[in-house]
Write a structure and sequence with these properties.
With 94 residues, the protein is an all-alpha fold. It contains three helices and no strands.
Length: 94
């Protein structure tokens, strides 16, 4: 699993403005690049597709988006785009 303390839920966004995150892969930020189990893999693909426009706008490529989405779903199971972006922002600030 991750080196981070287990969190029961992803972080809540502070407001409706998406955070300004840097294009990178999770392991570039010190976040283990985990693969979700088979049931979570589809959720990761859906989350990546939903978040793709916002992350592409910030310079992320498809590989980076998929890596973050699979790592997120391995930790939390599923989630919405706002929480996903907030989580990336928090992980990059660690």
């Amino acid at each position: 699993m991750t080196e981070h303390p287990e969190r029961p839920h992803p972080p809540e966004p502070d407001d409706s403005t998406p955070p300004d995150v840097e294009p990178a892969r999770p392991e570039d930020e010190g976040v283990p690049d985990e693969e979700p189990d088979a049931m979570q893999l589809e959720a990761a693909h859906l989350l990546a597709n939903k978040a793709r426009p916002a992350l592409r706008e910030q310079g992320f490529d498809d590989d980076q988006i998929r890596a973050w989405a699979t790592t997120y779903t391995a930790e939390f199971g599923s989630g919405d785009v706002d929480r996903f972006l907030t989580w990336i922002d928090e992980e990059q600030r660690r």
